[in-house]
Design a protein that fits this description.
Elements (H helix, E strand, L loop, with lengths): L1 H18 L6 H8 L3 H4 L6 H22 L4 H14 L1 H8 L11 H12 L4 H19 L10 H15 L4
């Protein structure tokens, strides 16, 4: 039973990454696994449950990428960007809908941890940093910057502004 469930999640992830969320139908997942669509419902009650499993994968992999980054705001932001550009469909699924509160315990905190560390534990700045990185990435994924635009200076400027906010006043 667990093996079939893993196959279903793997097939859904393959479809998602190949053609985006719109291409990830229960029928398509079933075909990829080699079963009939109604058989999927023995393992998952609905498509949202499959998407939850993919969200867990996305948050876990994003947390791993951010944890592997060098300490600091710019490194954290670069890791965020790199993950999103490498796995754009998984990134979108993981970050564009309301976050399901049925995640494994500690996963949300783990995913937020690197941004909190990069902002000296300031939750307000960590949220702002995430919003900055997410906004920049989404604009890039959506092709909203001019072709060939050098985005590195914008990333540096944004991270420098956040870094200046983390400096403690005497």
């Amino acid at each position: 039973m667990a093996e079939r469930r893993e196959q279903i999640v793997a097939a859904a992830l393959e479809l998602l990454e190949a053609d985006g969320r719109e291409a990830m139908s229960m029928r398509g997942i079933a075909e990829r696994v080699g079963i009939r669509a109604p058989s999927l419902y023995k393992h998952f009650p609905d498509k949202a449950a499959v998407e939850l499993e993919l969200t867990v994968i996305g948050l876990t992999e994003m947390a791993e990428a951010l944890e592997a980054a060098e300490p600091g705001l710019l490194s954290c932001a670069r890791a965020h960007r790199s993950f999103a550009l490498t796995r754009p469909h998984l990134y979108r699924l993981t970050t564009t809908d309301p976050l399901p509160r049925m995640l494994p315990e500690g996963l949300e905190a783990r995913a937020a941890g690197p941004a909190l560390r990069a902002t000296d534990g300031r939750a307000d700045l960590a949220r702002a940093l995430w919003a900055f990185a997410h906004g920049m990435v989404m604009l890039e994924l959506d092709g909203r910057f001019p072709t060939g635009a050098d985005l590195e200076p914008a990333w540096i400027a944004g991270c420098t502004a956040f870094q200046n906010m983390t400096v403690k006043e005497d």
